[in-house]
Amino acid sequence: MALYADLHRHLGGSVVPRILWRYFQRHDEQLAQRFPDYYKFEEFYTRERSSLDEYLELHTLVESVQTVKTLPYFIYRLIRGAYIFENLAYLELRYTPYYRTAHDLSQHERIEQMGTIVEIVGKASQVKEYPMITSQILCMHTRLPYEVNKAIVDLAASRRDYVCAVDIAGGDSHVRERLDEFIRLYQYARSLGIKTTGHLFETVNGCYPELLPYLMRIGHGIQIPLKYPELLKEVAQLNQCLEICPTTYLKTGTLEDLSELKIVFERCFEAGVDIAICTDNAGLHNVRLPFEYENLLTQNIIDFAQLEACQDAAFRHAFAWPYQQRPASLLTGLLQETYLDDHSSKPLLTL
After folding, report:
1. Pick from 133, 125, 102: which is nearest to 2 by CA?
2. Could you tell me which residue ranges the Adenosine deaminase domain spans (predicted)?
């Protein structure tokens, strides 16, 4: 039964360890030799890293095998798992299309090929036996030149049938030296009517309030309630939603314990700031969305009412969800109507 929405999931980090390792064994001799034993690979792939930058290096491993030919293979398995094991009704996949193009092409040719990548991802995400609404968020990248990042924004504007927003990825500490450039890119995106989110305030090295006015959602954003709670009023006024990805902060060394998120949720709820609970990199973490919910509940970080509020917020802030209500509400109404229809003609039991 599809009930949930994940607003922050990276295509590169979404491949679960078993699927990725099996692909290596079948199709990539070099990587198969590097990782001959599955359990050693799983330990390497999912272990905690010392920093966000070290953690992000793992994306290059997956990006190297996500190509024009192989993307349908990975996406089919991603959609199947998200529908069957996570009960997702809605999924936004984010990635940098430039890093899925052929490396032997020129920069201009790779920019041209990005459109093909977007179409492949879009078509592969539409799996009839696993009905789910999906959309793409195209990520600009801190390691890419301005020309490529601008082309990513232009591509998002031209493929609104598949793309719902733009983002910036690549490690939040690397934004500082190009902050004015990324402000211009976000201004340009908003001028084209493109929706926006951005990896911001994830770590103490990635806090750029100058970018806040241009974002409709904030990728992570946990340092706002932790270190800059005075900004929560502005976030609430802008109706921005934080995309909180709990396991990520343990894997990147950003937080030492999940309990540190309790104050994040408390301060956001007090300030009227919405939170959507997300997975970020479900494959790298080997943790699916329902387990993120369960971990927060069992560790007393949130209660069930707060969880439901976060689930509501996810659909309310989803860039491409076409309905006014989340699936659970629609289903409840349908079941109530069915119950009334079944019992309306039956006599009441009397004593």
Report:
1. 133
2. 5-320
What whole-number distance in Å separates Cα of residue 6 and Cα of residue 25?
30
Residue 349 lies in a domain: no
Kindly report the number of other CB atoms within 10 A of residue 272's CB atom.
12
| CB contact burial 292-303 (16+ within 10 A = b; e otherwise) | bbebbeeeebbe
Domain-located, residue 344: no
Give the pLDDT confidence of 187-219 residue by residue, as tens digits.
999 999 999 999 999 999 999 999 999 999 999
Neighbour tally for 348: CB within 10 Å: 5
Q: How many domains does the chain have?
A: 1
User: Is 339 part of a structural domain of the chain?
Assistant: no
- Round to whole Å and give the CA distance between 77 and 127: 10
pLDDT tens-place string over residues 18-39: 888 998 999 888 889 999 999 9
DSSP 346: S
Q: How far apart are CA 315 and CA 170, in angstroms?
A: 26
Nearest alpha carbon to residue 58 among 330, 286, 213: 286
H-helix or E-strand spanning residue 222 = none
pTM of the model: 0.90
Asked, for residue 338, whether it belongs to a domain, the answer is no
Closest CA to 16 of 284, 327, 333, 307: 284
Q: Which residue shows structure tokens 């309310």?
A: 316
Whether 351 shows a pLDDT value over 50: the answer reads no
What type of residue sits at position 53? D
Q: Residue 182 is part of a domain; what is its CATH number?
A: 3.20.20.140
